[in-house]
Write a structure and sequence with these properties.
By secondary structure, the protein is an alpha/beta fold. The protein contains 11 helices and 8 strands. The protein has an 8-stranded parallel beta barrel with strand order 1-2-3-4-5-6-7-8, surrounded by 5 helices. It is globular, with a radius of gyration of 17 Å.
Length: 248
């Protein structure tokens, strides 16, 4: 099955009104190849501004959402509110959320289910820490995290899985194409064995972790790497454009 290439740009807690305008203006000039989906994730306070000014063939995501539609949850935003703004995607389970805000596998699964039920598509993040890789438990960790999502949802149509080894995020260290492909293959086989072969064949599994304009093309050659979740390089329009075209 041919899976459309997927490029996500996670701006994290970066940007200002001026920087966001410059990024949007630059992105509006980037040609999006056929069979390629591009989504950018600004900080929550800028998502409406970005969606209103960015061309429609680039999607917009939030970086997080909660498990309730509304209520006394100070500081949170709901998928329903995102949908009301025309925001069709959300990143959930990012390692920074797991690490700094103590989000566990079950909570990430519950948030994923709630977002999907609200009509918001999900970039669901998983990945091992350096000590887990060195201990040889990478496969156990990432399949446990994937199971936390699988336990809560039935339909994977609107889920993109992002494998982001924590030791490679923002460190300049990058999993080799072979290392990344090995884990992506484990994840796809787990989906085939525990969800369905159809879901395994159709679900896009993307790689994140210090992806840049120089290494994206090599990573994109691997059959189970269906795109990228990009951090710092997504704040540089020229580099991000190069990554968007990495499979060409």
């Amino acid at each position: 099955m041919v899976r459309n290439f997927f490029i996500g740009g996670n701006w994290k807690m970066n940007g200002s009104v001026a920087q966001v305008k410059a990024l949007v203006d630059g992105l509006n000039g980037v040609d999006i190849p056929n069979a390629t989906e591009v989504v950018v994730a600004p900080p929550a306070i800028y998502v409406d501004r970005v969606r209103s000014n960015l061309k429609k063939d680039i999607g917009v995501a939030a970086q997080n959402s909660y498990v309730k539609a509304s209520g006394a949850y100070t500081g949170e935003i709901s998928p329903e509110q995102l949908k009301d703004l025309g925001i069709d995607w959300v990143i959930l389970g990012h390692s920074e959320r797991r690490e700094y805000f103590a989000e566990n596998d079950k909570f990430v699964g519950e948030k994923t289910a709630h977002a999907l039920n609200a009509g918001v598509k999900v970039i669901a993040c998983i990945g091992e820490k350096l000590e887990e890789r060195e201990a040889g438990t990478t496969a156990d960790v990432v399949t446990r995290q994937l199971k936390g999502i699988a336990d809560e949802i039935k339909d994977w149509t609107n889920v993109v899985v992002a494998y982001e080894p924590v030791w490679a995020i923002g460190t300049g260290k990058v999993a080799t194409p072979e290392q990344a492909e090995e884990v992506h293959d484990v994840l796809r086989k787990w989906l085939a064995a525990n969800v369905s072969q159809q879901v395994a064949d159709s679900t896009r599994i993307i790689y994140g972790g210090s992806v840049n304009a120089k290494n994206a093309a090599d990573l994109a050659t691997k059959p189970n790497i269906d795109g990228f979740l990009v951090g710092g390089a997504s704040l540089k329009v020229d580099d991000f454009s190069t990554i968007i075209h990495a499979r060409l």
